[in-house]
Amino acid sequence: MGATLANTFAPPSGARSGGLLDRRYGPLVLHAWLLLIGFVTLWLAEEPATTLYVTGAAVTVVFPWIIYLEIRRAPLGLSPVSFYFGWNTVALGLAAIHHGNKLADGIPIRFSVQTIYPDDLAAGYVMYLLGTFGLHAGLQLMRPIPRPGERSPPGGSGFLLLWVIGILVRFGDKFIVGLGAFGGLLQWGSLAALTRYVIDQSRDHRRASFWLLVILGTAIEFVVNLRAGSKAFLMFSFLPAGLLFARERALRRWLPVLGMALTAFYLGVVAPVIAASRQANEIAGESQSDRIVRTYTQGDYSEGDGVAEQATAFFERSFEPIPAAFLYGEVERHGHRWGETFDYLAYAFVPRLFWPDKPTVSRGGWFYYYIGAARTEAEATTSIAQTAAGELYWNFGFPGVVLGLGAIGALFGALWRLTTAFPEQDPIRIVLYIGIVFNMIDMAEAGTTVVNIAFRAVVLVPSMFLLDRAARKRAEPLAGARAA
Questions:
Q1: CA-CA-CA-CA torsion for 366, 367, 368, 372, nearest 10 degrees?
Q2: Which regions span the lipid bilayer (predicted)?
Q3: Is the pLDDT of residue 179 over 70?
């Protein structure tokens, strides 16, 4: 293979050129201006809603600008950067404006059984944005930046096997839990394989056979994801289609149409059906996917909330600064915890393979108990994320947020660098790449995020080394034949 672990972290020739420096650090300048707007508005604004209005509007301009730069420069178009900022254009832009409207109308901001003070919400929002800057800075520092004219090396094989494993592993829930973080990565195998097919074969997008495989693969991914009962997982099934429309110039003009169609599908079908299925009566022997299908076929979801209500629910569900704002208020009242809530890291790095009864690493149940929603941690029926930014601020304040998330971003960037700028070259790299894309928008706590990164590096780095070694051995006879 053209890129191996041996040269992954070697500085590329010409890395000091202005062009590469601009590609690595230019987007951070835009992000820094956004952060300045947030802090200045927080300092000068008399009403907390103003901070959410002004900064949220700035997010809807700056984040798409960063996405535009990334799509133009990244070989695949889709990258951890473009996906992260695409998600947060809504979650930190439109959702912030929505919560500004709630504050302006005097509507209380609820966080489970707690109520968030308006001043805490504004401060928590800006603090969360500081965390996004730290994450972005660490990521840009370590990520791979391809040289001008650099092309993808020849791809390997095994992608059909990866697709099969990705489908089968999701039918064994206990198997995934037993594998820990590695099992969580394998569940993206089929989506990663389909994504690679789109990348490799998109030049044939005018052929009917290409569209047949893409549509069939997307449909299978959607059906299998019904088992998870997650609205997000169901919509992630369409990621390869979105990538296809973004990569191909002839299809790019239809990208807004695809986006509007998927938005309508989510708000009009996926969100109300999943919500209604969770309230439906259970039937003995019925799986979660069976209940979702039954809810849809019976039309029991049509009497629920409409599109506007579903959009509102999404804004409120995706606005992660709310738990961060709660923890900001906790610090104002009780002070920092100085690492006390990271006690789970004492056992988190022990593989579940060697300790089957290891306590859960996720702190969602404990946090649900902490905020007063359950009498004990054992009785907690819901998991609530502290968010990585919230946990770091709770313990170490603003320096902890920017430095801690900067370190996490650098770890993500190091994993990304291991996949190289062209992760489609082999199955392990592409599944790790897709895992990074999704993990960056799902950081329930800072500590658990670091644990997941560590386990994936321990398992996958040796695997990539073995694949690279096998590829070099296969290439040696060919090189000798050419020399002769």
A1: 100
A2: 25-45, 51-69, 81-101, 121-142, 154-171, 177-199, 208-226, 254-275, 396-416, 450-467
A3: no
